[in-house]
Each structure stands twice: as structure tokens, then as C-alpha cells.
Design a protein that fits this description.
heterotrimer, A alpha/beta, B alpha/beta, C mainly alpha, A: D-Maltodextrin-Binding Protein, domain 2, D-Maltodextrin-Binding Protein, domain 2, B: alpha/beta
Chain lengths: 331, 243, 532
């Protein structure tokens, strides 16, 4: 009986209280899953901050923006981790994040980076991952993918909720421009399903529901390193691949400003970055030297790296999503 | 001598803890009234005759032919119930015609036959009305018309006129009695009221607790009852004995 | 006599609490819709979502009825067979099963890695395709609505008088004429109502479509509202879709209330009538096959939930603190919803009874009771979206996730309370008003001595039902909840979404056990108290 009471009060305390020295980080699900980088990063940061990191994970990163807007600065979040360059402008315009005030951050990125608000924590290139055994002849270009459909064999994510989904939408926009909607109409015939998040899509792909899934050029590294499996490969496209730089920022309504700043600084250190390649299966934003597994150096590099300016994306995202919605539902 | 119109021979039927055991002979063309308190088993006896219930043992014969194992539709017997004799969404004519073809695939001759039957019950002008637009008496007359077109020699009346007023009930009894005699039908009529029996029945059978205690000519049975159960049934006040 | 005034205010209060809230939510939605954007909103996407919603609801309705009619007929033709009572009870389970649990059961049986595909694989036959999309939605919807329709249809058969069957036997009617001349006319009376009800339920389906739909191409209005609000923060679109939903549901519901005739009497008591077409061997085999198919369709997903759960990592999942916290939250939402439902229902019932029995304003009373069923029109998602928009910027909505979920769920269950309590109140008024007047028994004393004890049992049943339903609900908590405030239903949805099927299996079973325990506990308590 007394044990039940203890348990219940502990439970109630957990529900009701947020301890003062808790850093609340909003992120996406795969980041904090047991095989993601979250647990290792949490341990490393807690060891030096004397605080507790509390993760809040949503299905996928694009939801983070809606989530912050819905909370209107009234939520628990101190740090938001998982937005990308495509969502930066909107997040900033809505006043949801604040400047970090860190000046000495240095990154090893394919683009030069200096931003007073957003701290990059990894990057990669979107790619269609295919199962070599189910699909011996993968598409060699985005045009192949768009026009070569003969059945529902591709799983993608929803650009409203997922940054890979948003990435594909912008990839199509970067390649097809004003005729992107027509390309989508053609592509949608081979889309098996549109999931809300990356985890769900990749899970479906591994279950064998479809031979292709939208993910990253770095995804095969996981299968090679962890499973010794080479059947999952990235289809490299002639037109190039859209780049994603994932970022973190301090939330406007934070009540842990110092702790949040410490965390953002921690991002650019090996303690955080070391968990990225074999946790999030993305490229780190600093030079890890020999700590970067060789597999990552052997991965195919995109012929062209595509990235639309954040301001353009910020201004057009809503309109492009409407356009996508109309096209993606098929004929 | 010809065989009886309807014969129940050593019928035994059990339901729950209650047992019905009966023998009954109804002569061809005879009109027999089955009287007795409610719960005596009168309706069950009709159900057994019609084939709605199966007896444990015993035989049922119509005009000397055993029908015990036949389904209701194959027995030369029709029944008039107290209510629900008609289908509410079919016209009077169609309800009659069901007696000619249960799937209502009708020939012109069938329609004429049904129309003639309606004339015999004086409903020729109401052929196209649905039961909802007919009075209680008219509805039962449609059912009688159907029984006529089925041309089955035995007609069972399970209190079809009990819900009608006294005058109308007497008129209906007279009608059914006249039509039955015209067509030579053997009739068994269940009744609560000895006056109904007196009005049209040749013979009366008295049932009590699952048994037929007495069968005889209407007048002699009803006018000078000797059997204590019958006396009590006819006039409960006359015998203040134990219940 | 009980005065008018004291019995009108409860109804007014309840009206404010229930449909009033819905109206408020609608006003909030209208208020949030900026002018001039309608062109963007009535685009191909909106029309597609509307089209898909209508399509899946229509197909769900047709399929449910096409299978429910022969199934109900087979059950009606076999009023006595061993286990018939169990079958009827089995068909009652989907009505109270949490939708997300049913989704798990359907996936466990019909999914790519489900039992059916495993069996087909063993037999060397090509497996079933993916379940996500329209197919999955239809399987889940028929799982819910075939048994519902059967239970609503059975009274139609049972209302056919015994004489009719005897007449049919005497006339020698065979199966087809019996169906055409006896059964169909009865069915024709009730089928439109049942069809409209099933259409309305599947039109507003949220959980099934959320979990089994395949992206923007397979979303109902309800899911699209949720996506626009929670995932896309496209409040304008959410508002527009919500208004579309309300207009269509209101239209269907008005037709339903106006024309539909069907009884909710205790179905399946199995009045024993001998049917002439029930004796032949082909009929016997046919009925057995139909009933077996029905048992399989409804029973397999239920068995899937039970077996997968018991074979899952029970110890591992049940040792997790977050699972038990989620269970605790489910119970809290359930209890809150139960209290809301009972209070609003009781107040509405009392006033409607007063109007009908003492003021002879039967029509007004009926309107009041129909107002209690407003969640058929203003669906939980629309109600929730309205509340969300209303509160946005004023309070931290996510901090109020559990109370808001309880409130929305409570209002959804008001019709059950009314259905159980209202007849008792009216009967009491009819039987005892004069006696009470002559004894001077009124006010609180009358409630304590008369209504209280009589209403206690049905009230406990209503409370138990509302609590159990809310404890298993995903709709409101998906709208208001966050990962921090996850209930069991939300945990289950997330586990399903990430293909952690082993974990999902245990959570699904736990959720069923929790809901069942709540129901049995409250109902039993009501019985004990009523006897005391």
C-alpha cells in the first residue's frame, strides 16, 4: 500500500514539476531514439553542466516550427534542435528564437556559416535510398524518378511535417522551377505513401513495403557499419542533391538562457559532434579527424549540391506547400 | 363410411414442464369449437395440427392421409390467426393471391380467382387497398378469402375475431360458417366464448390443462354440463370449491 | 408540484456547457478565418480531401450494410444455437473498443506482417498488399460498423410477428419470397437510418484514418483539420475545413433525425420463431458460413490484440514508468470525461423530462435531447480545434491537455447518458408525480428519496461507459496532447507509427484492460451502492 502511494506521488511529481535546473530540448523522434545520438549527447552534456536534459520529441522536425507557434512562447522549450536552413527565416520572422550571443564558433561546412541565432549541428544530402535486391536498376536522375514510375514503389515524407519531405519539395523546385507541380503530379503515381515523419517512412522501407525511400546519402553508412549490409544504397542523381543543414537555436521564451547557451556552444564540440556520424548518420559540422568512420569518406558525393536561399524558402514555403498538396494528391 | 376430416391420434407434446396429450376426431365438413380456459392448450393443439410444432409422438391425419411429417405448406390445412394475417405492404388482392403463389408470380387467371374470392367476402371494391386502410373486420375477411383460394380442406381458426366488437364478431362467424359449409371445409375454431360455439359449431371439444376432457354435440355439452371442470369453466361462481 | 423555474436552469446550464461550447468554438473558428482567403482554401486539395472523405464514408457504409444484412439475417434465422449469446456480445465489443486498439488489431491480422499474410505465405500464396490507405480504412471501418449495423438490424427481424412466419410456412414461401415479401419491407424502414448513421460516423472518422491513411491523398476532413492545426499551423485552413465538416455533418444529421427510424432496443435476445426457410441443409450451411465469416471479421482483430499482447514483451513494457504514467493519465482523462458527461447529461435530461412530462412541451424536450447529441455535428476534432483557437494566445493550451481532452470526450458521451437516464426520469415523472404532490415530496427530498435511488444504476452505467470510452480515446489527446502528457492511446499511436509492433501489442492490450477495468469497477460500484 505504502509503496503504491510512493509510486503515485512520484508519478504525480513527475507530471507536475519541472525542476529548475532542467534544460528542455525540443527535437524530432529519431534523434532521441535509443539508437539515435540523443542518449550519448545527453550523458555528455549532463556530465559537464550539472543539469538534466529533458527531450521532447515530435514526429519530425518541420512540426517543431508549428509546435513553437502553437505554444506561442508559453512552452517549456529552452532549445529547439532539428530545424534546418529551410525553416530558419520563418522561425526568425515569427520571433520564436533569440540570438545566442556566441561569437567564437567555428564550423567545417561546405558553406560558410555565421549566424547570430542558429547553430548548425549536422548536414547531409537528401537522396533516394533503394534496396539493391528489390530494385537492381535504380533511377539515375531525378527525371528518371519522376517519369519512370511503373507502380507504387517510393515512400516519402510530408513537407508540412518533415524536413526530408520539405527537402524533396525544394529539390523538385530547384530542379523543375515553375513546372515542379507537373513533376509532382507525375511522381505521385509511384508514391506508395506519404508519412508524417522520417522514422515511419524508413521503418516502412526496412519492412519491405517499398524498394525506395526518401532519406540521405549517408543512410547506407548505417547498414554498412552496424549491419555489414550493402544492399541499401543511395541513388545518385545527375541533377545533384539538395543539401540539408540541421540547426539548433535558443527559444525566445527560455527560462534557462545560460544553460541553453552552454548547450549551443556544446554542439560545436567533439562531445556532441562525435555522436552525429554513427548516431544521426549525418556529416558532423566540425572536423572530427580520425573519429569520423571511414565509411563516411567513401560515401558517394553529390555531383551538384543544391540549396535554395533561406529567405526565398521562408517567403514561398506556404504557397509551395499548397501547390504540393494539390499535386501530391494525384489525379 | 368416409374417413374423418381431421384426426389427431395419440398426440403428445411437451414444452417446459407442461404436457399436452390429446386425441381428437373431426368429421369431414364438420365445424368443431375448441373451448377452455386460456393456457389449456387450445392454440398449441392448432399449431400441432398445422405443423408449426412437432409432437413427440402420435399421428395427424387429414382425410385419412397421415401428414405428421409434412411441413406446414404441404399439409392441406390453413390457419386464420388473431392478427398479422396480412402483409402490410401488399394490397388486399396480392394478399389473397399469395395463397395461389407464395412468390406472387401471378397469371391473369390467378388474379381473377383472387378477385372472385374477394367478392365472396364482399370486398370486391377494396382489392387495391392495403391492410392499413382496412378495418379490423375487413382485414380478417381478406384472410378468409385467401384461405378460400388455397382450397385446402381443413380450416383452423385461432380466435381470429376475438379483437372485434360483439356484433361484428357474430357477423364474421356467420360469414365464415356459411363459406365453410359452401366449400365443404372441415373447421376447428378456438374460442373463449361459449356463445360463439353455440352460434355456429356442430360439435364442441372442451380442453383443460393439455387434455381434451370431453367432446360432443354443442347443445348437449353446453346446456347440461356434468363434468366439474366444465361447470367451473362455464360458470365460475357456481362452484366455490378449491381452486 | 415541482416548479418550472428550478428545473429549467439545469437545462440552460447544460446548454451553455455543451452546444453552447460548440457554438463558441464555431464562432472562434469563424473569427479566426481572415477574409479573402477563400480562394486559396477551396483549392484542389480541399476538394480532394472532401472527395476522399465522402468516398471512404460511402464505401464504408455500403460495405458495412452489404455484409451486415446477410449476417443479421443469418443470426435472425438461427435464434437458437450454442454460443449465439456470445456472438451477439462479441458484436458489442467494437462499439466500446478504443479505435486505436482496433487499428492495431486490424494491422496485426491484415498488415504486411500480419497473421493472414503469414498464413498465406506458409500456403505459398502471394501475400496481401500494403494495408495503408483506402483498403486499411475500409477494413477498420467495417470492423466497427458491420457489428453496429447487425445490432441495429436485428430488432427489425425480431419485430416480425410469429404469425407472419407461420403464415409464410403455411403458404410454402421459400427463402427468396420471404426476403422480398416479409424481410425487405421491414429492412427498408430501418436501413436508411442505419446507413445515414454509419455514413456520419465514418465521415467523421479520425483515429482510423490518422493511423491507417496514407498521407495527404488519404485524409478525411477530420484528419486534415488536425494536420493543418497541429502539424502545419495553418489555422486558416483548419478553420475552413472545420466549417466544411460542420455544414456537411449538420445536413446529414438533420436528415437523420428527421426521417430515420430505428430502435436501440436490446438487440439479439433471440425471440424464438420457427421460420420455414431455416430447416433445409443449404440454408443451414449458408447461415453457418455467413455467421462464421462475421465472427472471423470481428473476432480476428480482437484475438490479434489479445494474442500479440500476451506474446509481446510484457515484462519489459510493463516495467516502464512512462507506460504507467500514461495509464494514469488515461484514467484521469476518463474520469474527468465521465463526470462532465454525467453532469451535462443529467442536467439536460432533468430539464427535458420537465418540459416533456409536466409542461407538455414534448417537441422542445426532444430538441433539447438532440442538442445533447451535437457532437455528431460538431465533431470532437472541430470542437477541439475551436477550443484550441479560442484559447490560443490566452493560456498555454498544452498545459491544459488533459482537462481539455476530458471536456471534449465528456461532451461526446452526453448522448449515452441521456439514453440511459432520460427514460428513467420520464417514467418516474409519469408514475409518481401525483403521489409526490399529494405527499408534498419535492425538491431535494424528492431527489434523495425518489429519483436518486432509481437513477443511480443507469447513471453508474453511463459514467462507466463515458469513462471507459474517454480513457481509450485518441482524438482529443492527439489534438491537445504532447509527448509529455501522453496517454496510453497516444503511446500506442506513436509505437504504431514507428513500427515498434511488439511494444504496441503490449500497450494495446494494457489499454483494453485499463478500459475494461474502469468500466467494471464503476458499474460494479454503482450496483453495490444502489443495493445498499
Amino acid at each position: 500500500m505504502s509503496r503504491t502511494v510512493t509510486f503515485l506521488s512520484a508519478a504525480l511529481l513527475t507530471i507536475l514539476s519541472a525542476r529548475a535546473d532542467t534544460l528542455d530540448v525540443y527535437t524530432y523522434e529519431s534523434f532521441v531514439s535509443e539508437w539515435g545520438p540523443g542518449p550519448q549527447i545527453e550523458e555528455a552534456f549532463e556530465a559537464r553542466c550539472d543539469c538534466t536534459v529533458r527531450w521532447t520529441a515530435v514526429d519530425d522536425a518541420a512540426i517543431l516550427l508549428s509546435r513553437l507557434r502553437l505554444e506561442g512562447g508559453g512552452g517549456d522549450a529552452d532549445v529547439v534542435l532539428g530545424l534546418d536552413t529551410n525553416l530558419m527565416a520563418e522561425t526568425l520572422d515569427l520571433g520564436l528564437v533569440r540570438q545566442h550571443g556566441l561569437e567564437d564558433l567555428e564550423f567545417d561546412l561546405p558553406v560558410s556559416w555565421s549566424d547570430p541565432v542558429f547553430v548548425p549541428f549536422d548536414y547531409g544530402y537528401f537522396a533516394v535510398i533503394y534496396d539493391d535486391e528489390a530494385l537492381p536498376q535504380p533511377p539515375a536522375s531525378l527525371a528518371d524518378l519522376v517519369t519512370g514510375g511503373s507502380g507504387a514503389d517510393l515512400i516519402i515524407q510530408d513537407p508540412r511535417t518533415s524536413t526530408p519531405g520539405l527537402g524533396l519539395m525544394l529539390w523538385m523546385k530547384a530542379v523543375y522551377g515553375d513546372s515542379a507541380a507537373d513533376a509532382w503530379r507525375s511522381l505521385s503515381s509511384r508514391v506508395l505513401t506519404v508519412t508524417a515523419g522520417w522514422s515511419e517512412a524508413y521503418g516502412l522501407f526496412l519492412e519491405g513495403e517499398a524498394p525506395m525511400v526518401l532519406s540521405y546519402t549517408t543512410s547506407p553508412a548505417y547498414h554498412q557499419l552496424v549491419e555489414g549490409e550493402t544492399r541499401y544504397r543511395a541513388a545518385m542523381f545527375e541533377e545533384g542533391h539538395y543539401m540539408q543543414i540541421e540547426v539548433a537555436a535558443m527559444v525566445e521564451g527560455t527560462d534557462q538562457e545560460d544553460l541553453a547557451r552552454d548547450f549551443l556552444r556544446f554542439i560545436a564540440t567533439p562531445g556532441f559532434q562525435g555522436a552525429i556520424p554513427t548516431g544521426n548518420w549525418m556529416y558532423p559540422v566540425i572536423d572530427l579527424g580520425d573519429d569520423l568512420p571511414d565509411v563516411f569518406r567513401e560515401l558517394p558525393a553529390p555531383a551538384v549540391s543544391l540549396l535554395l536561399p533561406p529567405k526565398d524558402v521562408g517567403a514561398m514555403r506556404r504557397q509551395w506547400i499548397d501547390e504540393w498538396l494539390e499535386a501530391a494528391i494525384g489525379e | 363410411m368416409s374417413s374423418p376430416g381431421l384426426e389427431l391420434d395419440g398426440i403428445v407434446f411437451r414444452q417446459g414442464g407442461w404436457t399436452l396429450a390429446a386425441d381428437l376426431v373431426v368429421r369431414r365438413g364438420e365445424l368443431l369449437a375448441l373451448i377452455g380456459a386460456s393456457g389449456a392448450g387450445k392454440s398449441t393443439l392448432l399449431s400441432l395440427a398445422a405443423g408449426f410444432e412437432r409432437p413427440l409422438s402420435g399421428r395427424i391425419l387429414v382425410n385419412g392421409r397421415a401428414v405428421t411429417d409434412l411441413p406446414p405448406a404441404s399439409r392441406p390445412i390453413t390457419t386464420l390467426f388473431q392478427e398479422h394475417n396480412l402483409f402490410a405492404h401488399l394490397s388486399a388482392l396480392d394478399n389473397v393471391a399469395l395463397g395461389l403463389d407464395p412468390g406472387l408470380r401471378l397469371t391473369a387467371a390467378d388474379r381473377r380467382t383472387a378477385q372472385e374470392a374477394l367478392s365472396r367476402v364482399e370486398l370486391e371494391t377494396m382489392a387495391h387497398r392495403r391492410p392499413g386502410k382496412l378495418s379490423g373486420g375487413e382485414r380478417q375477411r381478406v384472410a378468409i378469402a385467401r384461405a378460400l383460394v388455397m382450397k385446402r380442406p381443413v380450416l383452423l381458426l385461432d380466435e381470429p375475431f376475438a379483437a372485434l366488437g360483439p356484433a361484428l364478431r357474430r357477423a364474421m362467424l356467420d360469414l365464415v360458417s356459411r363459406l365453410a359449409r359452401e366449400s365443404g371445409l372441415t373447421v376447428v375454431m378456438v374460442s373463449h366464448d361459449p356463445a360463439d360455439a353455440r352460434r355456429i359449431a356442430d360439435t364442441v371439444a372442451f380442453m383443460d390443462d393439455g387434455r381434451i376432457l370431453l367432446t360432443g354435440p354443442t347443445d348437449s355439452v353446453l346446456d347440461s354440463p356434468v363434468l366439474p371442470e366444465l361447470v367451473r369453466y362455464l360458470d365460475p361462481d357456481s362452484d366455490p370449491g378449491p381452486p | 408540484m415541482v416548479g418550472l423555474r428550478p428545473l429549467l436552469w439545469p437545462g440552460v446550464a447544460a446548454l451553455i456547457a455543451s452546444p453552447g461550447l460548440a457554438v463558441l468554438a464555431l464562432v472562434a473558428l469563424l473569427d479566426a478565418a481572415p477574409p479573402g482567403e477563400t480562394e486559396r482554401l477551396l483549392d484542389r486539395y480541399a476538394l480532394h480531401v472532401l472527395g476522399f472523405t465522402v468516398l471512404q464514408a460511402t464505401l464504408s457504409t455500403i460495405l458495412s450494410l452489404v455484409f451486415a444484412v446477410p449476417l443479421a439475417r443469418a443470426l435472425a434465422r438461427r435464434p437458437v444455437f450454442p454460443g449465439r449469446g456470445i456472438v451477439i456480445r462479441l458484436f458489442g465489443i467494437p462499439l466500446v473498443l478504443p479505435a486505436i486498439v482496433a487499428v492495431f488489431g486490424v494491422v496485426a491480422v491484415w498488415g504486411q506482417n500480419g497473421a493472414v499474410n503469414a498464413a498465406l505465405g506458409k500456403a505459398g500464396v502471394a501475400g496481401l498488399g500494403p494495408i495503408y490507405g483506402l483498403e486499411g480504412i475500409l477494413i477498420a471501418h467495417t470492423f466497427f460498423n458491420i457489428p453496429l449495423a447487425v445490432r441495429l438490424l436485428l430488432p427489425a427481424w425480431e419485430s416480425i410477428p410469429g404469425e407472419t412466419w407461420r403464415l409464410a410456412a403455411q403458404l410454402g414461401m421459400t427463402s427468396w419470397p420471404i426476403f422480398r415479401l416479409i424481410e425487405w419491407p421491414r429492412l427498408a424502414e430501418v436501413l436508411p437510418g442505419i446507413a445515414m448513421l454509419v455514413f456520419l460516423l465514418t465521415f467523421s472518422s479520425f483515429t482510423v484514418v490518422l493511423a491507417l491513411g496514407g498521407g495527404p491523398g488519404a485524409a478525411t476532413l477530420e484528419v486534415a483539420i488536425y494536420q493543418a492545426l497541429r502539424l502545419d499551423f495553418d489555422i486558416v485552413r483548419a478553420v475552413f475545413l472545420a466549417l466544411l465538416q460542420v455544414v456537411i455533418c449538420a445536413t446529414v444529421a438533420i436528415v437523420l433525425f428527421r426521417f430515420a427510424r430505428f430502435s436501440w432496443s436490446e438487440a439479439g435476445a433471440g425471440r424464438i420463431t420457427m421460420r420455414p426457410d431455416s430447416l433445409g441443409r443449404p440454408g443451414r450451411i449458408g447461415d453457418a458460413l455467413v455467421i462464421a465469416a462475421g465472427i472471423f471479421w470481428v473476432g480476428a482483430p480482437l484475438a490479434g490484440v489479445a494474442l500479440s499482447g500476451l506474446n509481446g514483451p510484457l515484462a519489459e513494457v510493463l516495467a516502464r514508468q512512462d507506460v504507467w504514467l500514461a495509464a494514469l493519465r488515461s484514467v484521469l482523462v476518463g474520469l474527468g470525461a465521465g463526470v462532465v458527461a454525467v453532469m451535462v447529461g443529467l442536467l439536460l435530461g432533468a430539464t427535458s423530462c420537465d418540459l416533456a412530462m409536466r409542461r407538455h412541451r414534448r417537441r422542445l424536450a426532444d430538441v433539447l435531447e438532440i442538442a445533447g447529441s451535437q457532437t455528431l455535428i460538431v465533431s470532437p476534432v472541430v470542437l477541439g480545434a475551436g477550443l484550441f483557437v479560442l484559447l490560443l494566445g490566452h493560456v498555454r493550451v498544452f498545459d491544459w491537455a488533459l482537462p481539455l481532452a476530458a471536456l471534449v470526450n465528456g461532451l461526446v458521451s452526453v448522448p449515452y447518458v441521456l439514453r440511459l437516464v432520460s427514460p428513467v426520469l420520464r417514467r418516474t415523472a409519469a408514475h409518481h408525480d401525483r403521489l409526490c404532490a399529494s405527499l408534498g415530496l419535492a425538491g431535494i427530498r424528492r431527489i434523495v428519496w425518489l429519483e436518486g435511488p432509481l437513477v443511480l444504476r443507469p447513471l453508474a452505467t453511463a459514467l462507466a461507459l463515458a469513462t471507459a470510452l474517454a480513457a481509450g480515446d485518441l482524438t482529443a489527446i492527439a489534438l491537445f496532447g504532447t509527448e509529455r502528457e501522453a496517454t496510453l492511446a497516444l503511446l500506442l499511436y506513436r509505437a504504431l507509427g514507428s513500427y515498434r509492433m511488439d511494444e504496441a501489442a503490449v500497450i494495446a492490450l494494457l489499454l483494453v484492460v485499463v478500459c475494461l477495468a474502469i468500466f467494471v469497477a464503476i458499474e460494479g460500484l454503482g450496483r453495490v451502492v444502489a443495493r445498499a
